[in-house]
Amino acid sequence: RAKEEGRDQVKEYSEDFDRAVQQRFQMLRDLREALDKNQLDLHYQPQLDLKTGKVIGAEALLRWFKPDNSKEGGSYISPADFIPVAEQSGLIVPIGEWVLAQACEAAAEWNRNGHDIRIAINVSGAQFYQSDIVSYVRDVLNKTGLNPKMLELEVTESVFMDDIQHTIHTLQELHGLGVELAIDDFGTGYSSLSYLRQFPIDRLKIDQSFIRNALNNPDDAAIAKTIVRLGHSLNLKVIAEGVETREHEAFLIAEDCDEVQGFRYSRPIPLVKFKSFITSYDGNLSQFDG
Ligand code: C2E
Ligand code: MG
Ligand code: MG
Ligand code: MG
């Protein structure tokens, strides 16, 4: 009996496993097609300076609208679901190049129109190791005419830990182009503080989990405060993500955080909407109270 039960469990397990593998394969095929057919899109989420109230940046976030036969004509697939598949398959390299070109072009245009707004772009580990990211970034800057200091690349701590020497070298080359570098989701990874000094970093991004709980969990509040102090003592800017409420904002002002990003100000929005956001915003953070 026990043996039979065990066998059933193994069977069930391997069927689940097959299904998961097939789903990933299907997703990879669909994603490749989406890239070919131009079904990927970028949304932009504003980043604001807490002292001046100004919009100083925007993070570009990938969106995949997958057409189907439903009433809505399709649905959005979360990057949290498809980025890992893209990374494992190497498809992240052409996708990442598309993101970079697209986002830099957008930023070059709003800079030409007098808005000093930096563009922040997520770069995953695979892009560091599978492509010549340095020459690609250089080419995009040349083609778009974007001022390098208006481009920021966001990397997570895991990227740093893969191959320290290679990472330091690549980051130094990117920094040499004049591009800014930020550590995303800071506080959730394992980067050692001594390494932090060796990387040419400009900005720390406090992970949103600490902000979400800062007001009711003293440990999370303590971590958020510590990241601000750490950043400032290393001469880095500190930005908080996941800022949803006025209370979150008040906490961050009190802790002397430099910049904020989150649903309180705006969700990630299509380019056209982002342009109207920057022209209609009056530069006063209290505009978001209502
Ligand atoms: P991330 O870089 O940490 O991006 C921040 C995520 O938090 C975004 O999710 C954003 O929509 C969400 N967010 C922003 N403000 C708030 C808030 O106030 N509350 C809450 N609950 N969430 C907020 P999204 O767009 O689903 O992206 C998820 C992740 O996918 C990103 O995390 C990033 O790691 C990855 N990703 C997105 N676009 C790209 C890309 O172009 N390239 C690469 N390599 N990764 C990307
Ligand atoms: Mg990011
Ligand atoms: Mg993040
Ligand atoms: Mg710098």
Radius of gyration: 21 Å
Q: What spatial order of strands do you see in the largest sheet?
A: 1-2-4-5-6-7-8-9
Strand content: 15-25%
Distance linking N and C termini: 64 Å
What structural category do the secondary elements indicate? Answer: alpha/beta
What sequence of helices (H) and strands (E) makes up the elements?
HEEEHHEHHEHHEHEHHEHEEH
Main pleated-sheet profile? 8 strands, mixed, barrel
As residue ranges, the low-confidence spans are none
Residues in helix, % = 40-55%
**Average pLDDT figure:** 92
Q: What small molecules accompany the polymer chains?
A: ligand C2E, magnesium ion
Bulk shape = globular
Number of strands: 10
Question: How would you portray this structure in words?
Answer:
- By secondary structure, this protein is of the alpha/beta class.
- The protein has twelve helices and ten strands.
- It has helices at 2-36, 79-89, 92-112, 125-130, 133-144, 157-162, 164-176, 193-198, 208-212, 218-233, 246-254, 271-280; strands spanning 40-49, 55-67, 74-77, 118-122, 151-156, 180-186, 203-206, 237-241, 259-261, 269-270.
- The chain has an eight-stranded mixed barrel, surrounded by five helices.
- The longest helix is centred in the N-terminal third of the chain and has 35 residues, at 2-36.
- It is globular, with a radius of gyration of 21 Å.
- Bound molecules: ligand C2E and magnesium ion (3 copies).
